[in-house]
Specification:
Elements lengths: L1 H13 L1 H23 L8 H5 L2 H24 L2 H8 L2 H33 L9 H28 L2 H21 L9 H6 L3 H24 L3
Helix pairs in contact: 1-6, 2-4, 2-6, 4-6, 4-7, 4-8, 6-7, 6-10, 7-8, 7-10
Amino acid sequence: MKHALAYEWVRARSLRSTWLLLAGAGVLQFASGLYWGLNRDLGTLDALTSAFGLVDRLGALLIAAIGIAAFGLDHQHGTLATTRLVLRSPARIVAARALVTAGLALLGGVLMVVLTAAGVLTGGGALPAGAGAAGRAGAAVLPLTVLSGLAGVALGGLLRHTGLAVGVFAAWTFVAETALAALGRVPVTALPFSGTALFALPGMAVFAVLVVLALGAAVFTLARRDG
């Protein structure tokens, strides 16, 4: 497994898209923090909590794209056969990609939280004294990015197309979940992506279960379809 992780780490860090997507997620959050830090008419809101919301979901989409690229680019450039030859076991390939992507996603989540706070302070805003809503909003970014990155790995392995997988992830997170909440009366806290973004345990649990099942399906697909 150590060899598989080293192989996957070299692949991931050599891709320019990995670092551009991480940087993009951080820049989005810094810009959001700066905007809310410059806002002097917040009423009962605080700048840090307000700086998350929709923007951290866009950042999570960029992090998911890192996971999607783990398989999507392999199929696009025809290098999956080389990966299979080197690592052999489909389970080892998926596990290594999931672990490396999870590490990068966690790094991206931390970067997003830090740069959000930096943006608020740069704009002259103040960070809240206590944890409260701001603490929950910041803490939610970490499981949101990690689970999104892992979901991206699974989607990339299942769909074998980077653009299609990104589109499916975006459609689910920004369209399907909104429709389920508005039309299906499903509690937002129980939805995988939205619930995780709210740091709600039901949503995080559902997201985690879906990710595990999807990664298992990716292993099966890799063994059967690409063997």
